[in-house]
Specification:
Elements lengths: L1 H20 L20 H7 L3 H4 L3 E6 L5 H14 L4 E5 H13 L3 H10 L2 E7 L6 H14 L4 E6 L6 H5 L2 H13 L1 E6 L4 H11 L1
Helix pairs in contact: 1-4, 5-6, 5-7, 6-7, 7-9
């Protein structure tokens, strides 16, 4: 009975970790169609699922056009980390900047930055869909600097890294951000069709 109670408490703790992480959906690596996206190597993804990159404070950057499964893979890794009781948080870039700007205007930026820095794994989704002004770029840089070599960050972006100067408007800030993100990182370029387009085309063919 004691062992059963321990198991129930463990499962409850895992569910809590997953719920508080803010994932947009619950998807695992088993749900990903590697046959449809051959540029993604299954063995490489399975290695990330061991979570060794978190222990080494390394980052992962998923780069690819919309619909190729970047968010799915980032979420799957995040869920696995949450299952192992790591502190994980998922947030879109737009929401992240919105929260940091609000905190800055309310004179509690340092507190908010510390809150984001505490997470062992931070997943920032959808960088590049909207360009950032200089204030936003500076806030993003502060966060990445605080997490540099101390915590792991997963990034999903639809823009090649060479285009990040356009996102952050300032080449100096863009290069400084990339310098810290790429120093200890794994970069996965996903080249392939969109899952959303695939579903539409299949429906049209039926």
């Amino acid at each position: 009975l004691t062992e059963k109670e321990k198991e129930i408490k463990k499962e409850k703790a895992i569910r809590t970790c997953i719920q508080t992480a803010g994932f947009p959906f619950i998807k695992t690596i088993e749900d990903y169609n590697f046959n449809f996206q051959p540029s993604v190597h299954k063995a490489e993804m399975e290695d990330y699922m061991t979570l060794r990159f978190i222990e080494s404070n390394e980052n992962i950057l998923f780069i690819g056009s919309p619909g190729v499964g970047k968010t799915h893979l980032a979420t799957a890794i995040g869920i696995e980390a949450a299952k192992h009781r790591y502190s994980v948080y998922f947030i879109t870039c737009q929401e992240l900047i919105s929260q940091l700007k609000k905190a800055e205007h309310e004179n509690r930026l340092e507190q908010r930055l510390k809150a984001f820095t505490r997470h062992k794994l931070l997943i920032i989704d959808e960088i590049g869909y909207l360009n950032l002004d200089k204030e936003s770029a500076n806030l993003f840089f502060q966060l990445i600097s605080l997490r540099y070599e101390t915590k792991s960050t997963i990034i999903t972006t639809n823009k090649n890294l060479s285009k990040w100067t356009e996102i952050f408007c300032d080449p100096v800030i863009a290069n400084a951000i990339l310098d810290r993100l790429l120093h200890h990182s794994h970069v996965i370029n996903i080249v392939g069709p969109s899952y959303r387009t695939k579903d539409v085309l299949e429906n049209l063919e039926e």
